[in-house]
Amino acid sequence: MFQPVCELNQVKSYSTTITTNRDTADIYYPDLSLLKNQAFKFPIALFLQGFEVDKLYYSLFSRLIASAGFVVVVPNHIPPGRTYLAPELTQIKAILDYFKSDTVQDNSNLVDCVDSEKLVLLGHSCGGITGLEAIRYQQTIETISGQQYIRPPELVGGVFYGTNLLRKEAGSAMIENAGIPIALIAGELDSIVLPELTQRTYKNLADSPKALITVKGINHYGITDVSQPKDGPEEENKPQIQQTESVQIIAEWSGLFLQAYILQQQASLEKLSSYHDFLNEQVSVVCEG
């Protein structure tokens, strides 16, 4: 659906440690040596994982988003004083600082392709909650660490799967996203975050551009490489389509939205606009540009 900047086998990846917070992470990016006439650098896409879902389960999705023109970072994050994997707002500043550090500046392959002045957030489940909070709040206090979070000017968009922001502690239902583009994607068979919760969250987004995509036949783990990651919360429903197809569908819509509103590619914007209010046997789409 989106126009890739490279083939999937031209996406490079490596594992590293984020020196600014000691998270282990996998980084995916298009191989510049194989690209001709590349006109722009690639924004950072920070993936905020679901609760107790290891980064390895997001590999296919990450490769697909990298092929759309992004440097995708997928950390395993353990909050301070905890023993489980879960996302935090503090990761955002840590990633931005990391990409401006000597560690990255000395990596010629990466520094030549990354635009460290633009950051988008990707998120699954509670990672989506964290991402929505990161966009919603100009500043707040991180719940676990107690550290102050200030929304950075580099944060320019978000795409979140299987999530909502309807918790009582979230306060007012309205999500003041300050014009930052947000796409929410829901799995029709999600028993952990019901699709109607994602739909209600979409209605609470104050500003466009925004999109809501509901995919038929997939569950809470439609974005992961397997339909039930080893330590993730248990999903009651089995998917009705192959896992690879599920991930590809989510990535195609995610990539199209990001190309349209972050990379500002006219062809992607026109294609997305054609799905203003769309329904077929695979997806339903509501899009406000």
Automatic annotation (TrEMBL):
Gene3D superfamilies (UniProt xref): alpha/beta hydrolase (3.40.50.1820)
Keyword Hydrolase among UniProt keywords: yes
InterPro entries in the record: AB_hydrolase_fold, Chlorophyllase-like
Entry coiled-coil feature ranges: none
Keyword terms: Hydrolase
GO molecular function: hydrolase activity
SUPFAM superfamilies cross-referenced by the UniProt entry: alpha/beta-Hydrolases (SSF53474)
PANTHER family hit by this protein: CARBOXYLESTERASE TYPE B DOMAIN-CONTAINING PROTEIN, CHLOROPHYLLASE-2, CHLOROPLASTIC
Record's protein name: Alpha/beta hydrolase family protein
Source organism of the structure: Lyngbya aestuarii BL J
Biological classification of the source: Bacteria, Bacillati, Cyanobacteriota, Cyanophyceae, Oscillatoriophycideae
